[in-house]
Design a protein that fits this description.
- The chain has 442 residues and is α+β, with helices and mostly antiparallel strands.
- The chain has helices spanning 90-98, 107-111, 139-157, 178-190, 201-213, 217-220, 275-290, 299-316, 347-358, 388-399, 418-427; strands at residues 10-16, 20-27, 36-37, 40-45, 48-52, 55-56, 59-61, 86-88, 103-104, 167-172, 197-200, 226-232, 237-245, 261-267, 324-329, 341-346, 407-411, 440-441.
- The strands form five sheets. Strands 1, 2, 3, 6, 10 and 11 form a six-stranded mixed β-sheet that branches. Strands 14-13-12-17-18 form a five-stranded mixed β-sheet, with helices on both faces. A three-stranded antiparallel β-sheet has the order 8-7-9, with helices on both faces.
- Helix 7 crosses helix 8.
- The two termini are 29 Å apart.
Length: 442
């Protein structure tokens, strides 16, 4: 672990996500109530800069002159020049929806992909090169450009406490190997960050839960012996097991008992499955309602449809979900309303296509399918089986043969959906297919 800079006033945490990057900070010695998200200025259109806590982890490699001078504000992407202009964040995502061949996405997953040279200029993957082509960059440089953007945002907001002088924690998937971790550290160095502390994402989620317990921690974990952390983000899924051992009597802790000892015992594979896949699955199902017979929607319209499906999914999987939600795509130009199209997405359809599709009931010894299917993408090793529950069953068979987890910690926006939380906990009930003690969830 790197030592804290002597002039450090803050601890800054950066989550370099597959789909979004976010940063938060707390003053040294501060409490949980002092944690603050960093508003990150980013261009949202050619004429507007907005500050938002989420920076889409995307970079648009523009053609010379395509963006005018706008690519230089609020600050230019690392490595961007007039001959190869680039922009990161929200505007990059929107531009890339219209011209996918120029969009760099999922750099974090490319950084962990051992089947390619992660320091070579390979992104956007499959984009044409040469005269009239796309200027390519490496997964390493793309990752560094997102971190550099965050660093510039921090320095603009804290001119008296530059990021280079702060204690910085950077989260990584638990499944990252040593090569991916080393490249993450190199990306941070290229971005001008100080020596950073790497923290595994499931551990970060678990530490957050521990802090929230306060003085109740020992009591909360008194009956826990094996904690399963399921972290489903926008683009990836990580699985972690943590063993809990009671503290010795007499040590400081609740009611005179010692605090428990926590040991990570297993980490799953890096699975490229997440909320984005679920939104795309819904969008593909609804696409025939909006596209002419036998045709596909233009890329920008399909991206808009996926966004509308995400919003509808969240409503239809909530605890008090309505029976259906209208999904509307607006028209373009001067006839925005006149050309609007609407389709109905029902709660039963989302239950079938998302909950049953990605979290189907699984038996204890089920294993994911190996045959590559529709989720296989160019270059990246997407899993052949989209069923997260089957991946989880295989993980528990391999790493918890003597007893299933009694405590379940769910992390990620996907678990705002009550129906998905219910499906996972049902798998672990005494009468469920895995025959575990019903887990407490956090």
């Amino acid at each position: 672990m790197a030592a804290a800079p002597p002039s450090s006033a803050f601890v800054v945490g950066i989550d370099l996500g597959t789909s979004h990057t976010v940063a938060a900070s707390v003053p040294l010695g501060g409490a949980a109530a002092d944690i603050a998200l960093l508003p990150i200025p980013q261009r949202s259109t050619a004429g507007e800069v907005t500050a938002q806590p989420l920076l889409p982890s995307m970079r648009y490699q523009a053609a010379p002159g395509e963006l005018g001078d706008a690519w230089q504000q609020p600050w230019p992407a690392q490595g961007a020049t007039a001959e190869a202009p680039a922009v990161v964040g929200r505007w990059a995502r929107d531009l890339g929806a219209a011209v996918p061949a120029r969009l760099v996405a999922s750099a974090k997953s490319w950084l962990s992909h051992t089947g390619v040279d992660r320091t070579a200029d390979i992104l956007p993957w499959g984009a044409p090169e040469g005269e009239g082509g796309v200027a390519k960059i490496s997964p390493l440089q793309a990752s560094a450009s997102y971190l550099a953007h965050v660093a510039a945002a921090w320095n603009a907001a804290h001119p008296d406490a530059p990021l280079l002088q702060q204690t910085v924690v950077l989260t990584v998937p638990a499944s990252f190997d040593e090569g991916a971790r080393a490249l993450t550290l190199e990306a941070a160095q290229l971005a001008g960050l100080p020596p950073v502390h790497l923290l595994e994402e499931p551990k970060a989620a678990f530490h957050d839960w521990l802090v929230l317990q306060g003085d109740r921690l020992a009591a909360q974990l008194a009956h826990s012996r094996l904690v399963l952390v399921v972290d489903v983000g926008a683009g990836t899924t990580d699985l972690t097991l943590i063993r809990v051992e009671p503290g010795e009597p007499g040590e400081p802790g609740a009611q005179g008992d010692g605090l428990p000892t926590l040991t990570r015992t297993a980490v799953g594979e890096h699975l490229m499955l997440g909320g984005d896949n679920m939104d795309l699955a819904l969008a593909h199902r609804l696409e025939p309602h909006f596209a002419p017979d036998g045709q596909r929607l233009p890329a920008a319209r399909f991206a808009q449809l996926a966004q509308r499906c995400r919003q509808a999914k969240e409503q239809l999987l909530a605890h008090d979900a309505p029976e259906s939600v209208a999904v509307t795509l607006l028209g373009g130009g001067s006839r925005v309303l006149a050309q609007a199209q609407t389709a109905t997405l029902t709660r039963a359809q989302v239950q079938q296509w998302v909950v049953d599709g990605f979290f189907p009931p699984a038996q204890a010894h089920d294993a994911p399918a190996k045959r590559q299917g529709a989720l296989r993408g160019l270059g990246l090793p997407y899993p052949a089986d989209a069923a997260i529950t089957r991946h989880l069953a295989q993980f528990l068979t391999q790493h918890a043969p003597d007893g299933l987890p009694d405590t379940l910690l769910l992390n990620g926006g996907v678990f705002h959906a009550h129906a998905i939380v219910q499906r996972l906990t049902d798998q672990l009930t005494p009468t469920g297919p895995w025959r575990a003690a019903r887990p407490r969830t956090g």
